[in-house]
Amino acid sequence: MDWIILIIAGLCETGFTYCLGRAKDVSGAEYWCWMGGFLLFTILSMGLLAKATETLPIGTAYPVWTGIGAVGTVVIGILFFKEPTTFWRIFFILTLIVSIIGLKAVGH
User: Fold this and answer.
1) Would you give the DSSP letter of residue 82?
2) Which segments of the chain have a pLDDT < 50?
3) Contact predicate 65/51, CB 8 Å
4) What is the pLDDT of residue 108?
5) Is 56:107 a contact under the CB 8 Å cutoff?
C-alpha cells in the first residue's frame, strides 16, 4: 500500500508542475486558479510522501518520488507545452525510469 501512496505522491508532483506551467502563461483570476491547483497538489504530494516514508526507507522513497515527478514532468512538457522530443532526452528519461525500477527492486 505504501508504494501505491508513493506513486500517487509522485503523480501529484507532476500535477503541481503542470499547474505551474499553466500559471506562467495566464494572468488575473486564471493565474490564481492555477496557483491554487499548484498549492493543492504540492500539499497532497508532500503529505503522501510523508505518509509513505513512515514505512518505506527515505533513501528509496525520496528518489522514487522525485523520479516519478521528473519523468511525469518531462512527459507533460512534451504533450502539453510543446517541449522538444529528442533522442537524448528520451534516452535519459528511460535511464531514469530504469533507475527508479532498480531502486524499488533493491529496496527492503
Assistant:
1) -
2) none
3) no
4) 63
5) yes
